[in-house]
Design a protein that fits this description.
heterodimer, A: 181 residues, alpha+beta, three-stranded mixed β-sheet, 7 helices, 46% helix, elongated, B: 150 residues, 5 strands, 15% strand
C-alpha cells in the first residue's frame, strides 16, 4: 500500500497566527498554494492550518477587510494531522469521514502536506484499488459461508459458492501481502 | 464589483454520466483539473459536476474499483450554477452558505467554471473588500443611503 509520505507535497509554507489575511493571501498567490501551516508557538502547541476555503468563506464572503483580519481568527487549530506511514486508502477514508481535503504530515516535525489532489494524481488507487478492511470482510464471509452450509446442506451449490467467495477474498489478501514484501 | 465571468476559468472539460470513474480521473489528471462538468442528456436536463473530492471520498476511501464505478454514481446533479454577471462577493457568499467550492458558470450554455481558487487569485477582495452596505450602494447609487455622503 502506498503511504502518505509517498504522495505528500513536501513544499510547505508556514505563516504566523498573528499575520494578516492579506499577508497570507499574498503568500499563497506567490507560492501557488491552497493552504498554509500556522506556526506553533512552542513545542507543546498544536499545528494549525489556514486554507483558501477559510479565506473565501470567512473573509471574502462577508466583505471583511483582509488587511484588518488576522490568521488566528479564521484558522483551524488544532488541525487533523497525518502520520507519514499511514496508507493512502486510510488517508482517503479519514478525509471522507472528517470532511477535510488536506492535512499536514507530521512525525516529530512537519514533513509535508497531503491533499485529495495528491491522492488523485499520485496514488495507485485506480490501478490497484484496495479494500482496507479486507481481513474483516474475510471473517464476515466465513461466518456467512458457515451459516449457508448449515442451512442448505454441506453439499449444496450455495454452500460451495459461499466458500468460493471466501477463497477469492483470501487470494486477494494474500496477493497484497506478497506485494508488500 | 468584479463579476464571475471576469475571474472564471474558461478551460472546462465535460464527461458523460455513464463514463467510468477511472476515465474521469484520467481526464482530470491529463488536463490538471479538479472537476468535470457532466454533460446534459437533453436541453431540459440539469447540469452536473464531478469533483476530485467526490472521487476520493466515495471511491478511493472505500477501496472501490474506479474502473467499475460510473460517474453518475458519485456526481452532484443537479449542481449549483452561477450566472456570469454575479458579483464575486456574492459568489463567495453563495459558496460559503452552500458549502461548495466551485460551480459551473452558465448562461444559455456552459461558459466556464468558477472556484474559490479563482476568487483568491484573480478577484480584488483584498484590495477592495466590499461590505453589504458598499455592495448595496454600488448597486443602487441613487438610494438615499448611498447618497448620504454626497
Amino acid at each position: 500500500m502506498m503511504k502518505a509520505k509517498d504522495i505528500m507535497t513536501t513544499e510547505v509554507v508556514t505563516v504566523s497566527g498573528s499575520a494578516t489575511i492579506a499577508e497570507a493571501v499574498k503568500l499563497m498567490k506567490e507560492k501557488g498554494l491552497r493552504a498554509l501551516i500556522v506556526e506553533r508557538r512552542n513545542d507543546d502547541d498544536p499545528y494549525g492550518m489556514v486554507t483558501e476555503t477559510d479565506i473565501i468563506y470567512k473573509v471574502a464572503a462577508h466583505g471583511k477587510d483582509p488587511k484588518e483580519m488576522r490568521v488566528y481568527q479564521i484558522m483551524t487549530k488544532p488541525c487533523i494531522v497525518v502520520n507519514p506511514e499511514l496508507g493512502v486508502e486510510y488517508v482517503a477514508r479519514l478525509f471522507a469521514n472528517s470532511r477535510i481535503r488536506r492535512a499536514p504530515v507530521i512525525e516529530g516535525k512537519l514533513l509535508g502536506i497531503v491533499s485529495i489532489s495528491d491522492i488523485l494524481n499520485k496514488s495507485d488507487f485506480i490501478d490497484k484499488p484496495k479494500r482496507i478492511y479486507i481481513e474483516d470482510e474475510i471473517e464476515a464471509a466465513r461466518e456467512d459461508a458457515r451459516a449457508t452450509c448449515e442451512q442448505k446442506g454441506p453439499t449444496s451449490r450455495e454452500c460451495a459458492a459461499a466458500w468460493d467467495a471466501v477463497e477469492e477474498l483470501q487470494a486477494e489478501a494474500a496477493d497484497r501481502r506478497s506485494a508488500k514484501v | 464589483m468584479m463579476k464571475a465571468k471576469e475571474i472564471m476559468t474558461k478551460d472546462v472539460a465535460t464527461i458523460i454520466g455513464s463514463a467510468t470513474v477511472a476515465e474521469a480521473a484520467r481526464l482530470m489528471k491529463e488536463k490538471g483539473l479538479r472537476a468535470l462538468v457532466v454533460e446534459r442528456r437533453s436541453d431540459n436536463d440539469p447540469y452536473g459536476m464531478v469533483t476530485e473530492t467526490d472521487i476520493i471520498y466515495k471511491v478511493a476511501a472505500y477501496g472501490k474499483d474506479p474502473k467499475e464505478m460510473r460517474v453518475y454514481e458519485i456526481m452532484s446533479k443537479p449542481c449549483i450554477v452561477v450566472n456570469p454577471e454575479l458579483g464575486v462577493e456574492y459568489v463567495a457568499r453563495l459558496f460559503a452558505n452552500s458549502r461548495i467550492r466551485r460551480a459551473p458558470v452558465i448562461e444559455g450554455s456552459l461558459l466556464g467554471m468558477i472556484s474559490i481558487s479563482d476568487i483568491l487569485n484573480k478577484s480584488d477582495f483584498v484590495e477592495k473588500p466590499k461590505s453589504n452596505f458598499e455592495i448595496y450602494c454600488e448597486e443602487f447609487p441613487d438610494a438615499l443611503e448611498a447618497r448620504i455622503y454626497d
